[in-house]
Specification:
Helix content is about 0%, strand content about 45%. It has no helices and seven strands. It is elongated and about 65 Å long.
Length: about 100
């Protein structure tokens, strides 16, 4: 793991913004302190764990879409290769 990498903290996929390690104690392991930002909510999360323990890493793939159609509550998005239609609720647009 490294800064700007990804990790799962409290069952949330996050991007690491800061990471530090502490030295081993008399009877313990070195600890890793992670500060990360939740990918979906933007909330800051922190975790402290032994450096020898495994951590979950999410598979992250960024895909950009272009909004091509808006009809009532249906939206159409395109990634250049195919058109995807789906329903979602969104705030009313101001006129």
């Amino acid at each position: 793991m490294r800064k700007n990498g990804f990790v799962v903290i409290k069952q949330r996929p996050c991007k690491i913004v800061d990471m530090s390690t502490s030295k081993t104690g008399k009877h313990g392991h070195a600890k890793v302190h992670l500060t990360a930002i939740d990918l979906f909510t933007g909330k800051k999360l922190e975790d402290l764990s032994p450096s020898t323990h495994n951590m979950e890493v999410p598979h992250v793939r960024r895909q950009e879409y272009q909004l091509v159609r808006v009809e009532a509550m249906r939206k159409g998005m395109s990634n250049g290769r195919m058109l995807t239609k789906f329903s979602l609720t969104s705030p009313r647009m101001a006129s």
